């Protein structure tokens, strides 16, 4: 079985009934599992997590586009998080039995069909990218929806699929394939946005920080605090605990405490277990000392008919 | 399916060929899975983790007794860890689909059969105990093998099953049922055993510490350091991170650093994820944000024919 995860980000995080309708459209596709949903009012954005085999996943994404285009209008959308379109980003991620190549193929097929069926321009990104200048999501999204028409007038920004101008209300979409990503935020006990911005600049790859960290400062105005909002794009090489410790140290420099941190959506168990290994100074821990991991290993061996150890 | 875990502790942690022979005896029982083995030279003790359904587990434990009695002689055994017999302790622990009552029944049946077949006296402990004064393993084991004959002369220490005197070479065994336990040790950067002893006394239940902690100081002479050796008997109510933090603070008082900690054998993922929630200050984390947990939940629902959420 080829199991692939798909995590569409849509530009609606305030009107619950709209997000419910999007999920309902996905649920109508058999053989796709809805793993998680998470809406953020400040970002005005929702993150949906699906798992399934390639063909039903593609069908679910097309159903999501149809519902989102009918209910989300970027011309009247506002939120703290950068965005280009109604269905802003659609990454495919290899899980059990799946390869990155299969995810790239699925991204291209889905992107082409979205463009054909809905006249939404589609950019391919990360592992599915066809152009080194358009590998990074941030580069593609720079200028946001409001700057999209001007940006697309340049030959450099002809989309991979679809029309050479934005969809009037749904903008453009970014579709691709990547490794599992952790959406991780650290909230600071201050309302000084410049502190969050300086910390974000210190830790992110683009300005000299950790290789697999994307970060920006965000004001959570309803709570009167600020946030370092991050994507950890490879938790094995840039682990969550190292990022937490670095943000804590940088915050100290401005006399600011870390209030709390949060994972948005799902996180692989290994990322959190790695953090506990660090903080508990576990010296010689093996991943298969985790009871559930060991049980899965043994069951998999038994199914393959290998001898018990 | 009724899945039960069984974690026999045997009094041999130095002669690898002997431990291998014990495991070989277990492997001959079909339908029992050997999850883990862990030997400790200082303790001169091995911890074996098995999973299976009740009937094969009982058969595996009987096979282990037969092999252990043939190869382990307590009259010439020495080690840092208290022990009463060749197969020192045999706890049964409920996993998926199993209740504590089923574990108690299995403990009693297994204990009775061990006594009948091998003439080894058996004490029931924890949830299987028939006597409040003999619920705690430490109380039963006090005096160790060397003091066993004198102890058993008292009517208070008539065993639950078997002869009213120790087996000449294999002593006595303690069989019972309990919740999952974490064998957790913290190594200190000092050779002062009194520091480990004082910290153990500060954190263990029996002398005023945490409700679900058993602890003692141990010298790891081959490494020139000392260890606070613990059993955490309910990681939900007395979590691993709280114990780590308390030991760290107590050690500071004596100018001693924590060198590292270690989990012996298996640990439920939830115990480590709980530690990362604490250290990362995860504010509103839900257990089903863990990808693997969510996948299992969804699969279980699908198997039961419930609608996808």
Account of the 3D structure:
2 copies of one chain form a homodimer. Chain A is an alpha+beta fold and 309 residues long. Chain A has 2 domains: 174 residues, Formiminotransferase, N-terminal subdomain (Formiminotransferase-cyclodeaminase, Chain B, domain 1), CATH 3.30.990.10; 86 residues, Formiminotransferase, C-terminal subdomain (Alpha-Beta Plaits). Helix content of chain A is 35%, strand content 23%. Chain A contains 9 helices and 11 strands. In chain A, strands 1, 2, 3, 4, 5, 6 and 7 form a 7-stranded mixed β-sheet that branches. In chain A, strand 3 and strand 4 form a beta hairpin. In chain A, helix 2 packs parallel to helix 3. Chain A is globular and about 55 Å long. The first copy, chain A, starts with a strand and ends in a 6-residue tail after the last helix. The model of chain A has no long low-confidence stretch (mean pLDDT 93). At the A-B interface, strand 3, helix 7, strand 11, helix 8 and helix 9 of A face strand 3, helix 7, strand 11, helix 8 and helix 9 of B.
């Amino acid at each position: 079985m080829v199991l692939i995860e798909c995590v569409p980000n849509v530009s609606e995080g305030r009107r619950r009934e709209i997000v419910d309708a999007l999920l309902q459209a996905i649920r109508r596709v058999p053989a796709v599992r809805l793993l998680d949903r998470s809406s953020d009012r400040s970002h005005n954005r929702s993150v949906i997590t699906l798992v399934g085999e390639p063909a039903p996943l593609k069908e679910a994404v097309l159903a999501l586009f149809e519902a989102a285009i009918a209910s989300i209008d970027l011309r009247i959308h506002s939120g703290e998080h950068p965005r280009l379109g109604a269905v802003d980003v659609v990454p495919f991620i290899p899980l059990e039995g799946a390869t990155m190549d299969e995810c790239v193929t699925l991204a291209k097929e889905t992107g082409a069909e979205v463009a054909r069926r809905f006249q939404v321009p589609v950019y391919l990104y990360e592992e599915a990218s066809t152009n080194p200048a358009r590998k990074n999501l941030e580069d593609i999204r720079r200028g946001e929806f409001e700057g999209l028409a001007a940006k697309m007038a340049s030959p450099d920004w002809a989309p991979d699929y679809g029309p050479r101008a934005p969809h009037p209300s749904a903008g453009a979409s970014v579709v691709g394939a990547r490794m599992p990503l952790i959406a991780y935020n650290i909230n600071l006990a201050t309302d000084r946005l410049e502190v969050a911005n300086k910390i974000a600049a210190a830790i992110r790859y683009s300005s000299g920080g950790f290789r697999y960290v994307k970060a920006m400062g965000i004001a959570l105005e309803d709570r009167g605090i600020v946030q370092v909002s991050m994507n950890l794009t490879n938790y094995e090489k840039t682990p969550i605990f190292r990022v937490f410790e670095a943000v804590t140290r940088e915050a100290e420099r401005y006399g600011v405490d870390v209030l709390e941190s949060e994972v948005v959506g799902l996180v692989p168990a290994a990322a959190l277990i790695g953090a506990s290994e660090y903080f508990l100074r576990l010296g010689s821990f093996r991943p298969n000392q985790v009871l559930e991991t060991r049980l899965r290993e043994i069951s998999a061996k038994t199914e393959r008919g290998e001898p018990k150890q």
